[in-house]
Please model this.
Amino acid sequence: MKSAYPFNLRPTFPPASETDRWLSCCCAQYSFLLADRINRYEQGRFPIKAYPLACLHPDLQERPDYYSQIRPLPQLKKSHPWYTEFYSQVLQDVAKQVKVTFDRFLKGDSNGKRSGRPSFKGRNRYRTFTYPQFKDGCLQGILINLPMFGKVKVILHRPLPDGFNVKTASVTKTTDGYYITLSLEDKTVPEIKPDFNPDKITGIDVGLKEFLTTSEGETVAIPQYYRKAQKRLRVIQKRFTTQKRKQPQAKSS
Model:
């Protein structure tokens, strides 16, 4: 069983600026990897009718995938020393996000629905970086120790359930502060899946002329409880208005 627990972070001023620096680095890495995929994708599209039968064309290169994009990270840290200040798994997760985004553009999601062409994200739109593997013991009281980031105060408004292990951690910047979402997992708790027959599902549409209409065309009339009780209500109201009210008695001193 998997579950997600969001908590509020209370970083001091230096960690807060450090969070913005990490987000800026991840945003730059995201744009670089996405541009690499888009360029290779465009270079591999050759309109056949626009070329003669005999022509020279550049050698086709393999389209980048997740592993080919994380392989240059060690060399990138040598050519750009400031990349050594960021956790390698966080940068690898950026490549994974690019892969998921581009796969939805080319292949579609699990339902076969394809998304539009991936767009680049500005620094104000890139707001989350993720630790895909979270070590045990990083949560120490009201402090959480993020690898290569430091210890940050976290508001634990509810305790973590017993038996669950923290698998991933995502730090998000919002308009009202910083949050961390812990992904928990307990393999001993079975997943509860709904047991129903999809062929017997009925859709219901509530309207004004009819109380409801089902997907099979059946309609249910409006009960109109008020209209049915209106005559009886008129009699009761008339009886109430003509009833003599008792005068309150003065209290004796």
The first helix runs from residue 13 to 43. The mean pLDDT is 85. The chain is about 30% helix and 20% strand. The first strand starts at residue 2 and ends at 9.
